[in-house]
Amino acid sequence: MIYTGGTIGMVRDAATGALESCDFENLAANIPELAHIDADIDVITFDTPIDSSDMGPVHWQQLVKIISDNYDAYEGFVILHGTDTMAFTASALSFMLQDIAKPVILTGSQLSAQVIRTDAKENLLTAIEIAAAKDADGAPMVPEVCIYFHDELMRGNRSSKISANNLAAFASNNYPALATTGTDITYHREFIRKPSCRPFTPHYAMDGGIIILSLFPGLEQNVVESTLASDAVKGVIFRTFGSGNAPQNGWLVNSLSKAVQSGKTIVNISQCATGAVEMEKYVTGRQLLDAGIISGHDSTVEAALTKLMFLMGKGLSQSEIRQAMNTSLAGEITL
Q1: What is the CATH number of the domain that holds 26?
Q2: Which residue of the set 4, 7, 107, 300 is catalytic?
Q3: What is the pLDDT of residues 222-256, one digit of tens each?
Q4: Taking a C-beta distance cutoff of 8 angstroms, is the pair 63, 92 a contact?
Q5: Is residue 237 part of a domain?
Q6: Bridge partners of 107?
Q7: What's the pTM?
Q8: Quick check: is 7 catalytic?
Q9: Are strands 294-295 and 265-270 parallel, antiparallel or unpaired?
Q10: What are φ and ψ of residue 224, in 5° steps?
Q11: Distances from the Cα of 247 to the Cαs of 217, 220, 272, 282, 296, in angstroms?
Q12: 219 and 184, same structural domain?
């Protein structure tokens, strides 16, 4: 178990009333059932537990290092994580932990473990049970990076946080749940990825020279052009309307085309919570395809962003990145 921080282990400051990060011992004290789990559990904690708002590539690298160093010694891994960026971390790890064949289950809670109505206990205890689960042949039941939250196990790179208040805080809108829980845990084996025959390989380099650019009515030309002209911007996640559509403004398509020709990678994903980009469907999408924009298919923004960071971190050429973005590397898109 890897404890990074997050609401699940936070305590309320007596003076200000604000929640602040605390250590794992505090969390364990509020979930005494941990001592009765039928599994041998070791715990590694970040030196300084953090709020997930502070999570970034350096922490993803730290998680990859911990899992890589301990990969042969353990049958599964549970990561306790704040909810705000959990889907980003799960998506990043799905690419950085290439060809992983063991469960990596991220979970957390909407309420601190100190609160009477907390969701921390069920989320944590079930995540551990899933990480330890084996099939009839003794193989891990779920050999991939997942999020478990409020009765559902979701593929990590298909998940997004959808609520700041509801206990059902995450959803996998474009892919079915891998397991659902009630009195029993029901695994949906047809949706779970089978491990490859290739050896597990950790990757660490992530290139953060990427922005997310969302369309909206009234988006101004000088804002887009100045953003795309920046030498610091190497890649763009372009959030478009509907099935991948953009206004038929000559300046917009010209700016995007010029950016692509200069070597920047632009990936088109929909602003809609469900559905996929189909740039061939309408002329408003076809113009983007003709400008060299890459389809993000039915990717979440978290998966598209971290996948592009991963591919750029590997130092691939623009054409190699284009090919990889149109390939399902870890079950992140439907082709």
Answers
A1: 3.40.50.1170
A2: 7
A3: 999 999 999 999 999 999 999 999 999 899 999 99
A4: no
A5: yes
A6: 80
A7: 0.94
A8: yes
A9: parallel
A10: -65, -45
A11: 9, 12, 16, 11, 18
A12: no
Q: What confidence tier does 18 reach under pLDDT thresholds 50, 70, 90?
A: low
Q: How far apart are CA 176 and CA 308, in angstroms?
A: 24
Give Cα separations from 311 to 52, 108, 131, 303, 324 (angstroms): 24, 28, 28, 12, 8
Amino acid making up residue 207: D
- Tell me the one-letter amino acid at 99: D
Q: Pseudo-torsion of CA 19, 22, 28, 30, nearest 10°?
A: -30
Does residue 332 lie in a domain region? no
If one counts the domains in the chain, the total is 2
Residue 214's CATH number? 3.40.50.40
Q: Is residue 286 part of a domain?
A: yes
Q: Which domain holds residue 318?
A: 210-325
Looking at the structure, do residues 153 and 11 belong to the same domain, yes or no? Answer: yes
